[in-house]
Amino acid sequence: MRVEKTMIDRMLLTDLTVSLPRAVRLQRLVSQLKLAFACDAVALLQHDGETLRAVAAEGLARDALGRAFVVGQHPRLSTILLSREVVHFEPGSTLPDPYDGLVDAMVGAPLPVHDCMGAPVVVDGRCWGVLTLDALTPGRFDAAARQALQQCQPLVAAAVRMGLLEQEVQALQRAHAMPRDDAPGVAAQGPTLIGRSPAMQRVLHEIDVVAQSDLPVLLTGETGVGKDLFARRVHERSARAKGPMVHVNCAALPESLAESELFGHVRGAFSGATSDRPGRIEAARGGTVFLDEVGELPLSIQAKLLRTLQNGEVQRLGADKPIKVDVRVVAATNRGLRDAVATGTFRADLYHRLSVYPVEVPPLRDRGDDVLLLAGHFLEVNRARLGLRSLRLDAGGEAALLRYAWPGNVRELEHVIGRAALKLLSRGVSRADIATLSAELMDLSALPGDVPRGQDRRADAVQPDAGGEPIGAGTLREQVDQVQRHIIERCLRASEGNWAVAARRLGVDPSNLHKLAHRLGLK
Fold this sequence. Notes:
By secondary structure, the protein is an alpha/beta fold. It is 42% helix and 15% strand. It has helices spanning 5-16, 22-37, 75-82, 143-177, 198-211, 227-236, 255-263, 280-283, 299-311, 337-343, 348-354, 370-386, 395-403, 409-426, 439-442, 476-494, 499-506, 510-519, and strands spanning 41-48, 51-58, 68-70, 87-89, 115-123, 126-135, 217-220, 245-249, 264-265, 277-278, 288-292, 313-314, 323-324, 328-333, 357-360, 390-393, 434-437. Strand 1 and strand 2 form a beta hairpin. The longest helix has 35 residues, at 143-177. Residues 174-190 and 446-471 have low confidence and may be disordered.
């Protein structure tokens, strides 16, 4: 094919002279390349540890931008990544294509004999990622097209570099503001925060700004929104990134052991304390302690935590003197702590200390098309885990995900995709075929919360019996017990077996709920 190099140069150079948000710049880049090379799909993927993550794409399914392709599982991508020149895969190549079932023109179908080429994207002497082009017309990428792409590489790298400039400036500002010994190294690769919606971008920006201070941060939001990932981002973007991050699940701490776990103990403090032991807060010295579900802490422990925040010290159980500690506290809760303060179950002074900078994490239903990006991530994870050639959504599945209210948020989406993939395998789908998830397989209508957006989505809302009849026979007490048992069981399912969360939803004290569950035979 004939590719007019001057036209490509003019298109790409124009964008380099204007200020654009990074996502817009990269999306315009792939759109212009798709037009210039008259092909069916173009994708730009960033190298991230052992994976290549799509950051911009044109001509691929909407969930592609949420996928992370493990390099070792995709020989075409690994070949491009290891090269320093344009790589062309002949139409008859037998190497599996990572975009099988994802190209818009052939969604859900295996890619026929087609043309594919790609090039590494090298920024400042390092391989930042890869650029891939796919054409369903064999022979589209002839020698002239490959040469044109080779000549485009510096402009593609320049566009990527422009998108990184703002991030680099912010990193330099953080490094300049912190002592040399505390300059953060490369953070360990972990789960990634995925999302391009305005709500998500606003929160990420807010997190990145507050991370540079040493203020306590209180993350609020519904269960399942990923508050732990936001807490980790606070730590990794801070001057404490080289220090430890200690995660404490306050809801899982038995009251009898909470003080020892958080603040430590000395030998002989209680039966079984055979040696001195530092607590979780002390273990986070020089770093961050993340108090998840902080609203579940007993009042007695809240008083000691307040002292730590006020004075920067902890006192081990049984010790005479406090120990100075240098930690940053990030807390998270899905409770309304203001209401808990009003009812006396949470200390007002501790609340004000923790919520110096509150950040509300948006629920999944308020994040628009982010649900498809997250679905793409979980689809790719399950494809690799189950050894499938390809795993994708059909149009009905996409619509169902966008329509559903997601009371369990991202965690529920993860479970829905994993369960649907297993159902598909159980029905005999071949691992060598393109596996497609439909709305019927995900069965969202049978899950709590499948109601139109804007209506009551409480998982514990009680639905009256349609006929107005009692749900069982027996005495009044027996029928009341049966109703209570039914409500508790349903609330526990919606709370994923978390008794503390279920107690909050039902508006009862956790200890009373446990006693009632014992009486009803549920425990």
